[in-house]
Amino acid sequence: MKLLIPTNGSFGYKVMCLALAGFYAWFLMGLDIDGYIDRANYLIYAKHSDEIFVMYAASSFKTIITNEPIWLLLNIWAARHFTAEDTLRLIIFFSSFWVSFLVLRSYPKYAFLLILFILMPQILKNHIIHLRQGLGISLFFIGWWCRYLPLRIFFIGLAPLVHASFFFIDALFLLNVFFSTYRISTIWRVVYTVGMGVVLGALGMWLAGALGARQGESAEYSAMGSDGSGLAFLFWTLFTVIFCMEGKEFLKNNFFAATILFFYLSTYFLLPVTARVFESGMLLVLLASLGLSDWRRYAVYGLYVFYFCMQWYPVLGLPGYGWASNGTM
């Protein structure tokens, strides 16, 4: 699955990535601003983030930190320069452009698969209905690919202040820094990650409530499950098995992506928000899998296509592909 395209680092390839990312972001930004799920909520943020910020500030410092203050400050700034609708368009364009550009630029010889990745519903919806999460992913990705260490730390550290799921992703990132620093063996890395997942899965919502995060008190989050059928668990378990079959060297070199998988599976039946956490790191998992070899590479190709079709098939005939507000557009 390779395309005849300019080689990595060439000017022509970068221009192509910019053009595709620009079109992708422009198209998403141009969708009906009121026609999709949760847009009314984001319009409230665009208009009243100053009041929301003051409410959290009146509580405590920890409440501010755990309730996405950078997201609120961005909306406060934008409200002084743009309408609420244009604020949403700005956020959609920024996040979708940077995510798509950085992904498309990453592995040129797999350009077809990279396009498939950014068109997967679980990725696409972060720029249509989960705008705060999409912005968090874009900031994390900017940091992830930044070569200047202080800026890398800055953007990765900024992500959880935009979307709370990155508190978990950043914790996994720091865990991998610990693994590398102390040269922990692969098997113990797996044990520590699964153990941390079980603990956070059992205590995660209680901890969110104790820290004053809105997720800990929200009935929506408390009732949220990753997938009642368990099909997602089976699918990503198979994906993880293929990862592990590639060998210790591959796991060692891609253990952050593997950590996201292990954490997701270990918290699947324990942590209501684990699916949202996984979606924040899903692209990193998919990109890491491009390094698989032999039959394992073609096995994940098959899984990509299956996953892509199974996600799109049920929603193709629905208004707004299942994301329309009130089911109509």
UniProtKB/TrEMBL annotation:
Keywords: Membrane, Transferase, Transmembrane, Transmembrane helix. The keyword Transmembrane applies. Coiled coil: none annotated. GO terms for molecular function: transferase activity. The chain crosses the membrane at residues 12-33, 53-74, 86-104, 110-128, 135-155, 161-179, 191-211, 223-243, 255-278, 298-324. It comes from the Bacteria. This is EpsG-like putative glucosyltransferase. It comes from Chromohalobacter marismortui.
